[in-house]
Design brief:
CATH superfamily of one domain: Bira Bifunctional Protein, Domain 2
Number of strands: 11
CATH class of one domain: Alpha Beta
Structural class: alpha+beta
Number of helices: 11
Largest sheet: 8 strands, mixed
Radius of gyration: 21 Å
Shape: globular
Distance between the termini: 34 Å
Strand content: 15-25%
CATH architecture of one domain: 2-Layer Sandwich
Length: 313
């Protein structure tokens, strides 16, 4: 009886062992990915699993494991995202390096809770970043790097969903919509009845933007019938350029556009994208443009623990 109980509680929920074939296949795919990044002139960095909590904003370590350092007496955080750690490197050991910097990384991250079906609280991130460039070609370079490697690690039937994190605020501001906070929440939760409640005469168009994301050209025309804002036009042109680039260079990758995005893109500014694989419901890749230490940056992260689940489906 005691043996059975011990075996059932060997690991906390959301943590796992990888054995034999599964461990070896994961190792092979991680190495293949990193080798491809190095070939594309990204430089590898490896950051520690633990850092001082002082290195982060409170919002950045929400949901992280915290422990106390017996040497310094300070609080330590077990990282929940590797990209956030690059801020310290840019302020210290990389501060004199010539920009833009092309970096890649690999490592495990830990979460106190997971809202996902699989409840993984330990996952392996492999990612690429271009830091110190606000040029459009950097966005396309990151997307190209990721879309080239995914088929090589057995990921097929890819769909990239592109979003514009600034679009919702710009759109509501241009249409002079009241109850912006309530409507923004309804949009991000894709709550159709709440959108109708708060959007008034604009509800039909906003619901169409939320729900109909396969035909960007048609959707753009409908939006521009409602507004001629230069900022809105610029945002839509940005999305069209990405769509045209993917269609031309990756014809086997499907493209859709969730212009408003959701809460998961709050980390990003300007552009964001998720890449899905086959019938798997969670994005295998997340990426986009953001600010770090006052610098423009764009990057993408592959969640390697999902590969095992996709291969089992």
């Amino acid at each position: 009886m005691t043996t059975e109980k011990q075996s059932e509680n060997l690991l906390p929920v959301g943590f796992y062992d990888l054995l034999f074939d599964e461990a070896e296949e994961t190792h092979r795919k991680i190495n293949l990915t990193i080798d491809a990044f190095l070939k594309d002139k990204y430089r590898l960095v490896k950051t520690p699993l633990l850092e001082f909590a002082d290195n982060f904003q409170p919002s950045e370590i929400k949901g992280s494991f915290l422990v106390s350092d017996v040497i310094s007496g300070k609080n330590l955080v077990l990282r929940n995202d590797i990209t956030l750690q690059l801020s310290r490197l840019l302020a210290t050991r990389l501060k004199n390096n010539k920009l833009p910097l092309k970096l890649c990384y690999v490592g495990d991250v830990l979460l106190t809770k997971s809202a996902e079906l699989y409840a993984d609280r330990q996952s392996t991130q492999v990612g690429v970043e271009i830091i110190g460039s606000n040029q459009e070609k950097s966005d396309l370079e990151i997307i190209t790097t990721i879309l080239k490697i995914l088929p090589k690690i057995s990921l097929k039937n890819l769909l990239i969903e592109f979003s514009l994190p600034n679009f919702a605020q710009l759109f509501m501001q241009d249409l002079k919509i009241a109850n912006k906070a309530e409507l923004l929440l309804a949009i991000r939760e894709k709550n159709i009845s709440a959108i109708k409640k708060f959007a008034g005469k604009n509800a039909d168009l906003i619901n169409e933007i939320v729900l109909s994301n396969d035909n960007l050209i048609l959707l753009s025309k409908k939006i521009l019938q409602k507004t001629k804002s230069p900022k809105i036009i610029l945002e839509l042109e940005k999305a069209k350029k990405i769509a045209n680039f993917i269609t031309k260079n990756f014809p086997n990758v499907r493209f859709c556009c969730d212009l408003f995005g959701d809460n998961n893109t709050s980390y990003y500014q300007d552009i964001a994208f998720d890449i899905f694989c086959e019938n798997f419901s969670y994005p295998i890749v997340r990426g986009g443009r953001y600010k770090i230490n006052g610098l423009d940056a764009v990057g993408a992260t592959i969640y390697m623990n999902y590969l095992r689940k996709i291969n089992k489906n």
